[in-house]
Amino acid sequence: MLSENWGSVMNASQRPAKADPNKVAKIAILMTDGEFNLSYFDAATVGEVYNDAGKEPTRTAAKTLCTAMRAKGIEIFTIGFDLNEEIARATLQNCASPDTAKIKHFYQAANGTELNQAFQDIAHNIESLALTK
Asked: Pfam family of this protein, just one (predicted)?
């Protein structure tokens, strides 16, 4: 629950705070195999969820979502797990927030050890972000 737009489904004390770069860090971690083979974004029926049957390709929907999240001040870390396509890698790199001199936002993992390391690095980066803000 990063968006305050969904706050009405929660009690007032539990609602997401508005983004404020000096006080509130909003961070998303997106992990995928990059296949984008389900079309939940605009599917009207369960049958339309599979095989990219929706009106908008899922990769396009993912790009749109990432752009909208960054525009709302959400910092995005992405992890590609066992990526098989260069286009999947490019999509996740473009989805991630831009790297800084100290913080990497896109990771690739081919196995459990690399996946664990990616999450450890992200946790360290988030901790660093919290301490500097």
From this structure: VWA
72-129 per-position pLDDT tens digit? 889 999 999 988 888 889 999 999 999 988 899 999 999 999 999 999 999 998 887 6
Contacts of 5 (CB under 8 A, 6+ apart): none
At 11, list the tokens. Answer: 């009690």
Task: Give the end-to-end CA distance of the chain in Å, rounded to a whole number.
Answer: 21
The residue extents of the domains of the chain are: 22-132
Q: What is the pLDDT of residues 21-69, one digit of tens each?
A: 777 788 999 999 888 776 666 667 766 666 555 566 778 888 888 999 9
d(CA 82, CA 44): 30
| Of 108, 103, 98, residue with least CA distance to 31 | 108
User: For residue 110, with 0-12 CB atoms within 10 Å meaning exposed, 13-18 middle and 19 or more buried, which class applies?
Assistant: exposed
Does the domain formed by 22-132 have CATH 3.40.50.300?
Answer: no
Residue 98 tokens read as 């831009």
* Confidence (pTM): 0.80
